[in-house]
Write a structure and sequence with these properties.
With 126 residues, the chain is mostly helical. The protein has six helices and two strands; from the N terminus they run H-E-H-H-H-H-E-H. The protein has a two-stranded antiparallel sheet with strand order 1-2. The longest helix is centred in the C-terminal third of the chain and has 29 residues. The radius of gyration is 17 Å and the shape is globular.
Amino acid sequence: MFYLVARLLLSALALFLLAEFLPGLEVSSFYIALIVSVIFGVINILVKPILFILTLPITIVTLGLFSLVLNGLLFWFVASFVDGFAVSGFLSAFVASLLLSLLTGLLYKFLDKVNESGRRQPELHS
C-alpha cells in the first residue's frame, strides 16, 4: 500500500514540477496535481487499452509512435474536465505527457532502489 501511495505522490510531484517549467501547462496546486494523477492513472488503466486496440492498425503502421499521440490525447482529455489543470493545446499535451512519462519512470526507478535497499535479505544458515 505504501508503494502505491508513494508512486501516486511521485507522479503528482512530477506533474507539478513540469507545470512550473513547461509553457502551456498549468496546475494550480499540488492537490490538483494529485487529483490529475489519480484520474490519469484510472484513464490509463480503463480507457487506454480499449483505444489502443481500436487504433492498433495505425499504431502498427507508425511502428508504435501513435501510442505517444494517444497518450497526449488522453492527457489533453483529462485537462478538459479538471478545474485548475489546463493544457494550452495538443502540442503542449503531447510534450507534457512524454516528459511526464520519462520523469515518472526515473522517479519510479529511484523508488524501486530505495525499496530494495530497505528490505532485509534473509540470512542463509548452513
